[in-house]
Structure formats: C-alpha cells, structure tokens
Automatic annotation (TrEMBL):
Keywords: Fatty acid biosynthesis, Fatty acid metabolism, Lipid biosynthesis, Lipid metabolism, NAD, Oxidoreductase. It comes from Vagococcus carniphilus. This is Trans-2-enoyl-CoA reductase [NADH]. NAD(+) binds at residues 47-52, 73-74, 111-112, 140-141, 245, 274-276. Residues 3-78 form the Trans-2-enoyl-CoA reductase-like NAD(P)H binding domain. The gene is fabV. The lineage of its organism: Bacteria, Bacillati, Bacillota, Bacilli, Lactobacillales. Its EC number is 1.3.1.44. It holds the Pfam family Eno-Rase_NADH_b. Involved in the fatty acid synthesis (FAS II). Catalyzes the reduction of a carbon-carbon double bond in an enoyl moiety that is covalently linked to a coenzyme A (CoA). The active site is at 236 (proton donor). Pathway: Lipid metabolism; fatty acid biosynthesis. It catalyses: a 2,3-saturated acyl-CoA + NAD(+) = a (2E)-enoyl-CoA + NADH + H(+).
C-alpha cells in the first residue's frame, strides 16, 4: 500500500513510518557528527515521541550514551486508513537504534498526567533502570489533563487575554494565507491552560520520584518554554499559554527547593520557535516562522529541533556556555531574538502578501518540508513509500 501526505488544514492525516525511521536516523547522525559530550546517563523524557522531547532524547542517547525512558501519548495502527501517529513510529525506531548501541530505551505509551503512569515509571526505574534518573525533561504539549487528585479534567486553549486578536496564518492544505480572529480566553480557559501547560504536573512527577528515592545526586530537570518577539506576544507570551509558562517558572523555583539537598537543578529553558505539530496551529506563528527561517538561514543560524536541543545539552545544560536571563532562565533563544534578526524579520513580514509568501522571499518551502518531515514525508534519504499493514501492526514500541 502506498502512503502519501494527507492534510486537513494544518493537521497531518497520514504518516510514512519508514520516513519517520529515516528522520530519527538523520537526527541520530546529526548528533553523532557533533561528537560525544559528557552529559546525563539516565534520562526520563516526558513527551518523548516528537520534536523537542524526541530531540532531547536523541542527543542524550547518542551524544552522551544515556539510557532513556520515554513517555508519550501516541496511537498505533488500527486499519489501512489509520496507520497511527508519527510519534508511535518515532518511539519504535528510536528504541531499535538505541538498542543497537547497547542502550536501554524504554517506551511508555499513555497519559503522563496520570498517577498510574507515574507509578509504572517509578516501578520500572527501581526494578530495571538502575534505581535512579539523573535528568528529567518535561516536554509535554497536550490538549487536556485530568488532575488525579480531584478527578477534574482541564483543557488548554491558545488564546489572547483581554482582547480579541486577529492575525494572518498559513493554511498548509490550501497553501493560502488567511485571517484568523481569536476571541479572548475566558477565566476558565486561562485556568485550564495553566493546569495543562503549567508546571503543576512537573512538580508532582519530581515529588513522587524523590519520595521513591529515584533522583540521583546532581539531578537536573528542564521544562521548555517560549517567549518570542512582540509580533507573537498577543497569542503567546501575553496569552493563556504565556500565563501557564509563567506559572511553570514558579514550579521550577519550588522544584529547586525540593532538590537542593541533592545538589539538583531545575531550569526553564526558553527555546526557539520551530516547526512542530503544536506550533503550526498557533495563529501568526507560521507566518513569522517563514520569515524567521529566511533571516536565520541567511545568517547561517537556522536550527531544527535536533540542532537546537543538541546545542542546549552539550553547550549549556552540560557545557559551560549557558546564558541565563535575570530570572535565571536559560536563553538559547537569544539567536532568534537578537535585534538584528528581529529587525529583518519585521521588515520581511511587512512585505508579505497572499501572492508572494510562497516565493523565495521567505522560507515557506522549508517550513512546509519540515512539517512534512514530522510525519515521515519528503525525508532526506528515505525511498520507501509502500507499507504493509500487517508488518506495521506487528511492530511494538
Ligand atoms: P509536540 O506536540 O511535538 O510533542 C508533544 C509531546 O507530548 C509528544 O511526545 C506527545 O506524545 C506528548 N504528549 C501529549 N499529551 C500527552 C499525555 N497526556 N501523556 C503523555 N505524553 C503526552 O510538542 P513540541 O512542540 O515539541 O512542544 C514541547 C514543549 O516545548 C512544549 O512545552 C512547548 O510549549 C515547548 N516549546 C515549543 C516550541 C515550538 O516552537 N514548538 C518553542 C518553545 C517551547
């Protein structure tokens, strides 16, 4: 059976499992070409199956020879029209490649917010993972979360606060610019977004791991945040997601208190904007990205998730080139936010029209390719576009 990219708006409705395999391999090869570094050895990644979480897992495993546990929420193949999610296959092939190098690569598929998942992971760490982790990466991007202490389910909403905002976005299916009007978030939506995308669940993970004596001396933990430039603030930094990320900063402070006796460190890492399934549905962001990529590419500093996370791990989290801001947050996004880059991006955005946005003026084609790559399409080095359903069904994470 042949697989090809199917889009519904900015959501992918198909997957090429072998393209995902090649994409994982390409990322591994990127890290290997950068060489080894002295980093973490026992890593737990929450949200490990795609983009920033997957990239973190790959750099830890293939740059620092770390054993890894990955938790993610993904679906396997159901029938020939539903082959599962890209993250499902990323997990499978990551594990295969890591095991070939003699590394442990355990995948847990299910709800990271639940108590059951936390207990299962802790049991595994104690029984089969050497008893402790020295790093926890918190890279979840989720639409909802059930608080297991109250049983209440919360939903996140990417919305502005206090004002209706309109802005242009790109429809990848129709390859058109369109104007999106987003109503302000209600109080309930803001609260929901904080519950889902803030730091509470992160704190609960750390508390339970510590209680179970699963945190190693010198343990580090990191949560990825985004601030971005002014043009994105109404939707992001000053919107409901920004409130959630600010709350995660408070969580990070409490985690630091909690792990002080272990000489541990909790960090918020403000990362750059990249093409992911979460970022392409944020209003304005795609339009900003095609201009940002143009400018950063011209300056030789364009980064994909693996380039960004690998740099963060080897030069900042485990290197001596970390740059912190006044709030103690790690700021690898400084390349994106430099005055020079932002001035040029603003100039470019002002020139965009529905007619020219796909031209060489921008990196629309690169953005589209990166999006296709997330689902295993147009991946450099992959030649397999035919799949056998039964073979895919037999693969286990
Ligand atoms: P993504 O959508 O590519 O990955 C999200 C991960 O979370 C996947 O592994 C998914 O399976 C997992 N997940 C979702 N719900 C889950 C659940 N209930 N239980 C277990 N796993 C679950 O997202 P992306 O873009 O990599 O974002 C990760 C983090 O990085 C987010 O906190 C995001 O705000 C942050 N970030 C993203 C930026 C971007 O440009 N994409 C920029 C800066 C920060």
């Amino acid at each position: 059976m042949k697989v090809e990219m199917k889009l519904k708006g900015n959501m992918a409705r198909s997957v090429n499992p072998y393209g995902c395999k090649q994409e994982v391999l390409n990322q591994i090869n990127y890290v290997k070409a950068e060489g080894d570094y002295e980093g973490p050895k026992k890593v737990l990644v929450l949200g490990a199956s795609s983009s920033y979480g997957l990239a973190s897992r790959i750099t830890a495993a293939f740059g620092s020879h770390a054993d890894t546990i990955g938790v993610s929420f993904e679906r396997g193949p159901k029938d020939e029209s539903m082959l599962g999610t890209a993250g499902w296959y990323n997990n499978i092939f990551f594990r295969e490649f890591a095991e070939q190098e003699g590394l442990i690569a355990k995948n847990f598929i299910g709800d990271a917010f639940s108590l059951e998942m936390k207990e299962e992971v802790i049991k595994y760490i104690k029984e089969s993972f050497g008893g402790k982790v020295d790093m926890l990466v918190y890279s979840l991007a989720a639409p909802k979360r059930t608080d297991y202490k109250t049983g209440i389910t919360y939903s996140s909403a990417l919305k502005p606060i206090g004002q209706e905002v309109s802005g242009e976005n790109i429809n990848l299916e129709k390859e058109e610019l369109f104007t999106q009007v987003v109503e302000p978030a209600t109080e309930e939506e803001i609260e929901g977004t904080v519950k889902v995308m803030g730091g509470e669940d992160w704190e609960w993970w750390i508390e339970l791991l510590k209680e179970a004596d699963c945190l190693a001396e010198g343990f580090k933990t990191v949560l990825y945040s985004y601030i971005g430039p002014k043009v994105t603030h109404a939707f992001y930094h000053d919107g409901s997601l920004g409130v959630a990320k600010e709350q995660a900063e408070e969580s990070s402070k409490r985690i630091n208190e909690n792990i002080r006796e272990l000489n541990g460190q909790s960090l918020i890492c403000v990362s750059k904007a990249v093409t992911t399934k979460a970022s392409v549905v944020i209003p304005i962001l795609p339009k900003y990205l095609i201009c940002l990529y143009k400018v950063m590419k011209e300056q030789g500093i364009h980064e994909t998730p693996i380039m960004h996370k690998d740099r963060i791990f080897r030069t900042m989290l485990y290197g001596n080139e970390a740059n912190y801001d006044e709030k103690g947050r790690l700021r690898p996004d400084s390349w994106e936010l430099s005055d020079d880059v932002q001035r040029k991006v603003n100039d470019l955005m002002a020139q965009l029209t529905p007619q020219n946005f796909k031209s060489d003026l921008t990196e629309y084609q690169l953005f589209k390719k990166e999006f296709f790559n997330l689902n295993g399409f147009e991946v450099e080095g992959n030649t397999i576009n035919e799949v056998d359903f039964e073979t895919l069904k037999a693969m286990k994470p």
